[in-house]
């Protein structure tokens, strides 16, 4: 009986379908954060561009990237809000 349970556990995927969806969502959120972080450069190196230090690049983009990382952690760790059955 114990061997059968061991076989059944080896056939299960480590990441569930819900976890995979969360991983993809987390990746897309992080990519969106990196897009928010981009830009603000100057074509002329002698001219300083203040657009480099706006709210979007200093606050919003890092918060969005960290949110994506948190989503990834939830997806990988499998915290889905359900209790595991002990058999």
List key phrases describing it:
single chain; 87 residues; mainly alpha; 3 helices; 0% strand; rod-shaped
What does the model show?
This protein has 87 residues and is an all-alpha fold. The chain has one domain. The chain has helices at 2-11, 17-37, 55-77. Helix 2 runs antiparallel to helix 3 (55-77). The radius of gyration is 21 Å and the shape is rod-shaped. The N and C termini lie close together (12 Å). The mean pLDDT is 82.
- DSSP helix fraction: 55-70%
Number of strands: 0
Shape: rod-shaped
How many separate domains?
1
Supply Rg.
21 Å
Poorly predicted runs: none
Order of helices and strands: HHH
**N- and C-termini, Cα separation:** 12 Å
Which structural class is indicated by helix and strand composition?
Answer: mainly alpha
Largest β-sheet summary: none
Task: Summarize the entry for a quick read.
By secondary structure, this protein is mainly alpha-helical. Helix content is about 60%, strand content about 0%.
């Amino acid at each position: 009986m114990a061997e059968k349970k061991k076989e059944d556990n080896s056939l299960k995927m480590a990441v569930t379908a819900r976890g995979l969806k969360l991983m993809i969502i987390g990746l897309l959120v992080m990519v969106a954060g990196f897009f928010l972080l981009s830009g603000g450069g100057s074509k002329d190196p002698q001219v300083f561009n203040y657009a480099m230090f706006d709210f979007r690049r200093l606050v919003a983009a890092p918060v969005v990237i960290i949110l994506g990382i948190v989503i990834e952690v939830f997806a990988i760790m499998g915290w889905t809000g359900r209790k595991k059955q002990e058999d």
